[in-house]
Amino acid sequence: MNRIPHPTRRRLLLSGGSLAALSALAACDKVLPASFNGVDITGANYAKDFRLTDADGRERTLADFKGKAVMMFFGFTQCPDVCPTALVRAAEIRKMLGADGERLQVIFVTVDPERDSPVVLKAYTQAFDPSFIGLYGDMQRTSETAKDFKVFYRKVPTGSSYTMDHSAFSYVFDPKGRIRIVLRHEQSAQECAEDLRKILQSA
Description:
Helix content is 32%, strand content 23%. With 203 residues, the protein is α+β, with helices and mostly antiparallel strands. Strand 4, helix 3 and strand 5 form a beta-alpha-beta unit.
């Protein structure tokens, strides 16, 4: 499979300026004081909820995962490197959390519903960890959800096919369903696990 050209890959990584903009959109009041390795967006007025379908045909919302921290990533199953890297890291984070790993739900939202059928999505996510859940919507729902989460994506032609250019950060909600932090793609599994422990301990 051809790798994404270098200029496209650069756009996949969220820049410092974009992270600063996301952080600035968060409200000033904090749920609990904390120092994160990721970007603290506690109180943000976006990324409030979602309504998407899982691979078994069930409609899912954030309320379904109450009592768990939720780590949410947007990508596509034919992604050659960024998405697999993010999901491998997510699996490592879950292991690093030990018993608390059971209280972390990883969600992968496809930005390529044309190719990522329920069967493909389920096989892909569970290859990284059986507990991971893949979600999808139709083209309109996908666009609306990405907009609600301030996620960038677009189709990029590659000969007779196409790839997807997309944001590469992960959102984390606390067990009460409140948006808390954005994890940068370049953060290590250890740094992310430290943030998740703080989120779980504050619940």
